[in-house]
Amino acid sequence: MDPYNSRNQLNPSMNSDQTAADVSGNNQTSGNVDKTTADSSDTQPATRQPQYAGGFTIIPPNEARRSQIKTMAQKEEEELRRWKEVNRPSAVHLNPERLGGHVSESEARQKQLANLRGSKLQKKLKKEELDRKKRQEEEEKLQKMKDEQREKAERLEQRRQQEEQRRKDHLRTDHLRSREAFLQRFERRDVAASSSAAHTSSRGEDVESKQRAKESKRSEREVQLEHQRVNSDFLDKLEGRARGSETKKEAEHPFVATENFKPETTTGHVQLPHLKPEPSWTEGADSEPDYNWALIKLTNRFPDCSKDFLEDILQQCNGDYEEALTLLICSLS
């Protein structure tokens, strides 16, 4: 039997006290191990050896360190007590007053009853005020959003207009460039076209004059057609009267034949010399469909060219479709 274990079993109270002291000392010195090891190495007695009890290792505490900490704690407690004594609040001394202030009980109850009666109305008014403020804030917020959206839409519309204007300018410049290139190629390749370039330099004035001439011709043609219509109506009336008189004579004298009977014309109308149209009018009326037909054929043949340009070419060629077609093919090839 081990004598060390028997000694620990005989003195359990001493072992427990010593264990508690060792644990407390170990806890106090565990915070600053590096600092206390240097101090305790000089002051530790030779008897501070680890002890073993019930599977635990017990190290005796440093008595000098414990006494120093204890003295410091007592000093701090004394200073705290003195500070509390110095800073203790003084007693409050108030003059005695009647409870309830300067209002009697009946007046206080009447005031309380009036407040109770008007509390519902006050709550209602307060709620209405809060609702009004809330609606006003919502309207302001909505108006602000509308203004922002309106400004955004205006900016988008302005940007769209600027882009549209920029696109139109670009297309206009491109059209002018292509037109100038076409005219230059047309003047450079064809000698006949170059000879007529001086004539077509003032194209705007020529087009206007030609349009005026065309309108005048159209108005003259309309007048001629109106005259022809009136004349034909007049001739129809005369022919109807003549036929009526002849039928009446035949009814009166059925067996009498006129010797000086002249056959009617193939048209059935009486040709009057003052109603006969001039040859220039008929020539203009006959040449106009040929000119329009040639212009339609050129338009179908060259759909990329403008109508004014084709009219100009056709007029330069005196309405000759074949000559205008050859000129356009030579210039565009």
TrEMBL record:
Superkingdom of source: Eukaryota
Biased composition annotated in UniProt, kind: Basic and acidic residues? 73-87, 95-110, 126-191, 202-225
Disordered: region residues: 1-225
- Signal peptide positions are none
Which InterPro entries would you find in this protein's record? Answer: EPSTI1
Q: Where is the composition biased (Low complexity)?
A: 192-201
Regions of biased composition (Polar residues) lie at 1-50
PANTHER family, per this entry?
EPITHELIAL-STROMAL INTERACTION PROTEIN 1
What is the name of this protein? CUE domain-containing protein
